[in-house]
Amino acid sequence: MVPYYDDHYPPKYNKDLMLLREDLIGELQAINQYEAHAAQAGDPQVRALFMEIADDEKHHVADLLKMINRLDPVQARLIRERVCGYYKYDAKDNG
């Protein structure tokens, strides 16, 4: 068995978790779009507006991830380990 999983995983269907993940995708796509538009904008004020909006979307990403982590403990553990650096890398690890 994969060490991250236990008898309670995967979680039973959770509509809230599904909705949060779908919205996370949308926020990430929005960040890409606003940053691309900022790069294309000729007017510095327009560019600054696009970057400000992109930054707002990044706050939304953080809020969504926080709630996703609350609802999915395995996801939370992987974020802590792989993103926050609490994971001790083993060269044999393929993940």
Textual characterization of the structure:
This protein is an all-alpha fold. It has one domain. The chain has three helices and no strands. It has helices spanning 15-40, 44-71, 73-83. Helix 1 packs antiparallel against helix 2 and helix 2 (44-71) packs across helix 3. It is elongated, with a radius of gyration of 17 Å. The chain starts with 14 loop residues before the first helix and ends in a 12-residue tail after the last helix.
Give the arrangement of secondary structure elements.
Layout: H1 15-40, H2 44-71, H3 73-83
Helix pairs in contact: 1-2, 2-3
Structural features:
95 residues, mainly alpha, elongated, Rubrerythrin diiron-binding domain-containing protein, oxidoreductase activity
Estimated helix fraction = 55-70%
Number-wise, the strands total 0
- The biggest beta sheet, please? none
Q: For the residues shown, what is the average pLDDT?
A: 84
Content of β-strand? under 5%
Q: Given the structure, what is the number of helices? A: 3
Low-confidence segments, ≥5 residues, pLDDT <50?
none
Q: H/E element string?
A: HHH
Number of domains: 1
Shape: elongated
What is the C-alpha radius of gyration, as a whole number of Å? 17 Å
